[in-house]
Amino acid sequence: MEIKQSEFITSAVKPEQYPTDNRLEIAFVGRSNVGKSSLINSLTNRRKLVKVSGTPGKTRLVNFFLINNEFYFVDLPGYGYAKVSKKEKESWGKVIETYLVNRAQLKRIILLVDCRHKPSEDDKLMYSFIKHYGYSCTVVATKTDKLTKNELRKNIAMLKTELNLEEGDSLLLFSSLNKSGKEELLENIDSALKEI
Q1: Could you tell me the pLDDT band of residue 86, with boundaries at 50, 70 and 90?
Q2: Is 176 helix (H, G, I), strand (E, B) or coil?
Q3: Beta carbons of 56 and 37 less than 8 angstroms apart
Q4: Cα–Cα distances in Å, from 109 out to 28, 39, 48, 84, 88?
Q5: For residues 147 and 27, what is the distance between their CA atoms, to the nearest angstrom?
Q6: Region 6-194: CATH code
Q7: How far apart are alpha carbons 177 and 175 in whole angstroms?
Q8: Model confidence over 16-39: pLDDT tens digits?
Q9: Domain limits of the chain?
Q10: Engineered SS bond to 61: which of 11, 109, 124, 129, CB 3.0-4.6 Å?
Q11: Can you tell me the distance from the alpha carbon of 74 to that of 53, in angstroms, rounded to the nearest whole number?
């Protein structure tokens, strides 16, 4: 799949603000500093489609981007950022949960984890949350350019074990810096959109 066109459509907090055209959706979720904005920009070949912030935890809304005039990328709020109040964290959690519940257009969730570290409790919770709601999930290990091949091999095994990945869920490797893993991820998204 090739992404030729991408545009920001809307930001939402509640379901009545979501697009109503019934186009299919691919959602991206992960910790605040995992590289979500960079990954979406890389997939769409746009440097500034999604604002990359120096301050983690900037995405507090559900952001919809129309891709190839056919489907949406949905950027969900980053979680796990320590410098926000408990109340604010809970409100982000509610925003994510509200989106995930009964969203018929949502075909796949891309869960981003940092390949250098063990998944956080929030990462594990998010994975089980995704499975609880019955969505298919692709886990993407980001920042792979920061590790040697040997370290990466060990960490991939660790990520699979720690997250307790289910049969049929993919684990892909990605680097926004050198674009490695981009084609595989686009193929994964394409196959999700073609599933009936």
Answers
A1: low
A2: coil
A3: no
A4: 6, 14, 22, 25, 23
A5: 27
A6: 3.40.50.300
A7: 5
A8: 999 999 999 999 999 888 889 899
A9: 6-194
A10: 11
A11: 17
What is the Cβ-side half-sphere exposure of residue 132, based on CA atoms within 13 angstroms? 9
- Taking the CA atoms of 113, 93, 109 and 42 in sequence, report the sign of the dihedral they define: negative
Sequence-distant (6+) residues with CB within 8 A of 30 are: 36, 78, 79, 111, 112, 113, 123, 126, 142
* CA proximity to 59, closest of 40, 32, 39: 32
- DSSP element (H, E) containing 191: helix 182-194
Helix (H) and strand (E) counts for the chain?
5, 7
* Structural tokens at position 73: 């990328």
Q: 63 falls in which pLDDT band (50, 70, 90)?
A: very high
Rg (CA), the chain: 16
Rounded to whole angstroms, how far apart are CA atoms 179 and 181? Answer: 6
DSSP structure string for 96-150: HHHHHTT-TTEEEEEEEEETTSPPPHHHHHHHHHHHHTT-EEEEEEE-GGGS-HH
